[in-house]
Amino acid sequence: WYCICIYRLCFFLLPGLGFCYSIINGPTNVTVLAGSEARFNCTVSVGWVILIWLSNGNPVLTVISSQGAVETSDRFTSQNYTSSNGFTSELIIHNTQLSDSGKIECSTQQPSESSFAFLSVQVNGSLFIKNSTLTVKENKTVEIVCEALGWAPAPDITWMTNDSFIDKSRYVTQQSQGSNGLHNALSILTLTPTDTEILTCLADIEALPSPQNATLTVIFVNSTI
């Protein structure tokens, strides 16, 4: 009494024995902000016995068909869903940290099979312009500095004046490595105002629903006044 699994298909040589099963749908890539939850799903066909979740090669949670989830850390929990097509294990990583970034793997035993995805944990740092207002006289050129500290990865910096984006040729952005795997960015905008305007510095990373911003009001003073 035995069966042979070939390319995820099960052929029963004699009826009534055992199960062959496989991973139907593996996890997909996830990008989140540090401190939030990350969720991964793994669906296996009927007949599964043991499912193991690994983070960067280290087992973090085991699910046994006859027992349920075996959780060894409050940061790694699961929810389970059963349907006629198979069983889905959802791995939930709580309070994600930068060090959690990397390979998340769903692995089965008897037979051994695995499927993996990648977790990217990003850090939303600080962003500021030193002054909230700046008075500039006619025909005077000034440099406006916007500083982003403690980001991962380094943010993409753009500038706006009122409601319009400023051409990238008018500012220079430098990036540097900070501490604990974080990044800093310094953007300098060169400006010769002809009118009072509101400048906005925007910093963006993939995990942010919208860019973080810092603003400065440039007050234009006509030299004839």
From TrEMBL:
Please give the PROSITE patterns that the UniProt record associates with this protein: IG_LIKE (PS50835)
A Gene Ontology term for the protein's cellular component? bicellular tight junction
Database matches in Pfam families? I-set
- Using the record's annotation, list all stretches that form the Ig-like domain: 15-110, 111-217
Superkingdom is: Eukaryota
User: Which is a GO BP term held by this UniProt record?
Assistant: cell-cell adhesion
Q: Which UniProt keywords are given for this protein, alphabetically ordered?
A: Signal
Residue span of the signal peptide, if any?
Answer: 1-20
In its UniProt entry, what is this protein called?
IGSF5 protein
Gene giving rise to this polypeptide: Igsf5
